[in-house]
Specification:
By secondary structure, the protein is α/β, with parallel strands linked by helices. Helix content is 39%, strand content 15%. It is built from 12 helices and 10 strands. The strands form 2 sheets. Strands 1-5-4-2-3 form a 5-stranded parallel sheet. Helix 1 packs across helix 6 and helix 3 crosses helix 12. The longest helix has 33 residues. The radius of gyration is 20 Å and the shape is globular.
Length: 321
């Protein structure tokens, strides 16, 4: 039977999900935090299932987090090395989908440099698909782990003032967080140089600032983003020194947020570029390490839910035939 609250076999993005669906995913993830911390309570719910990590871009955190999540649930994990695969030799995305179908995986986790590529794969494979980040489009599990971190620390998301600061234009993390936080009733602010703010972003319902000091005023959450030089064409920031001076998070700028404001970062961090080490390592206010830990719990919940929905779908198809 498909999950009555989340009756989907794919997680391609946050856009379009209802508050009920998002909170359901967070509720499912919550108990996995302790399971992940205490290996003696490890689950075998996905024993015999196969999870394939198909990453067309390098990733340490996300790929390892999905791998750990799958192993904690007893699944078999295959990490496909794209650099040495047929894809690097010219195989098309559709050919890759055909090849994967022949292997009969249960869940496919995909990261791709092109927006929309993961959705295309989901339409061509016979398994559940999770978007591990596609271009500058979305990174849904990162937004979910961010939300779980906030909810466990603040007991709510509705009504909180969240500042997302930095290279918003190239950030799939920012986009997924916009959808999630606004859907759950948070007030979202974007703080960045004009060159790093996407056009028409205000239409999503966020407020934009080009001044850190004005944007951070009275914020509950300060989420910093990495400057993604690899996605930039041309010079969008004057220099690292100038960028940190105006948009890097340090004690002085942080003092304008609420005294107990949480500091977040999806990683990897560029210390001295978007965040000062003194702030990043503030164990009372920084939840950056906690984000990494809760990422495993969120991905355990998503993997188990989608695998079960897929199994229910396959059962229904078999019964119908």
């Amino acid at each position: 039977m498909l999950d009555p609250v989340f009756p989907h076999c794919h997680l391609l993005g946050i856009e379009g999900l209802s508050p009920l669906e998002i909170n359901h995913l967070l509720d499912l993830a919550d108990p996995y935090v302790e399971i992940n911390r205490n290996r003696e309570n490890a689950s075998e719910s996905l024993k015999g299932r196969t999870i394939v990590n198909l990453f067309f871009e390098n990733s340490t955190r996300t790929r390892t987090s999905f791998e750990l999540a799958a192993l904690r649930l007893g699944a078999n994990v295959i990490n496909m090395q794209i650099g040495s695969s047929s894809v690097a030799k010219g195989e098309t995305l559709i050919d890759t989908a055909v090849t994967l179908n022949a292997m009969h995986p249960d869940v496919l986790v995909v990261r791709h440099p092109q927006s929309g590529a993961v959705k295309l794969l989901s339409e061509k494979v016979n398994c559940a698909v999770i978007n591990g980040g596609d271009g500058s489009h979305e990174h849904p599990t990162q937004a979910l782990l961010d939300a779980l971190t906030i909810r466990r620390r603040r007991s709510k998301i509705e009504g909180l003032k969240v500042a997302i600061c930095g290279d918003v234009a190239h950030s799939r993390v920012a986009r997924s967080n916009f959808y999630l936080l606004l859907t759950l009733g948070a007030e979202v602010r974007v703080i960045a140089p004009r060159t790093l703010i996407p056009s028409h972003v205000e239409k999503l319902g966020v407020q934009t600032f080009n001044d850190m000091r004005k944007g951070l005023k009275d914020c509950d959450i300060v989420m910093m983003l990495r400057v993604q030089n690899e996605r930039m064409t041309g010079s969008l920031i004057p220099s690292v020194r100038e960028y940190f001076r105006f948009f890097g998070l340090d004690r002085e700028k942080l003092s304008l947020a609420k005294p107990d404001a949480l500091i977040m970062h999806p990683g990897p961090m560029n210390r001295g570029v978007e965040i000062d080490s003194d702030v990043a390592d503030d164990f009372e206010r920084s939840v950056i390490r906690e984000q990494v830990e809760l990422g495993v719990a969120v991905r355990m919940a998503v993997l188990e839910l989608l695998a079960k929905n897929l199994a229910a779908t396959r059962t229904n198809v078999s019964a119908a035939s």
